Amino acid sequence: MSWIYLMLAGLFEIGFALGLKHTDGFTRLWPSLGTAAAAAVSLYLLTQALRTIPVGTAYAVWTGIGACGVALIGVVLLGESASPVRLACVGLIVAGVVGLKLASPG
User: Fold this and answer.
1) Coiled-coil region(s) at which residues (predicted)?
2) What gap in Å lies between CA 80 and CA 75, rounded to an integer?
């Protein structure tokens, strides 16, 4: 169950990071509230995952999911660069996250 919490925490981390773009420096109320809510849910789920997953592994996976998710959404929805080097680097992060899962006990 901890890995499910961690994956969900990573998804909310994506929402948090994307929300920051729309807060305009936290001057827009609704985007700011949504961003804060996504951050709170993400951190709560991360704390639940930390009950059984080592902190180094959990944090690396959590930030990896967030980084890859935001980068891919940036390419698909926001028109950011999809250069082969950039996509390869995202692939390396994914490989690292998968490797951490495979190397983790339980």
Assistant:
1) none
2) 4
**Distance separating alpha carbons of residues 72 and 74, to the nearest angstrom:** 5
- Measured in residues, the chain has a length of 106
| Nearest residue to 41 (alpha-carbon basis) of 14, 1, 3 | 14
Helix count (H) and strand count (E) of the chain? 4, 0
pTM above 0.85, yes or no: yes
Identify the three-state secondary structure at position 13.
Answer: helix
Task: Report residue 59 as tokens.
Answer: 């944090």
Residue with token string 């996976």 = 61
CA atoms within 13 A of residue 7's CA, in its CB half-sphere: 7
- Read off the pLDDT of residues 30-64 as tens digits, 9 standing for 90 and up: 999 999 999 999 999 999 999 999 999 999 999 99
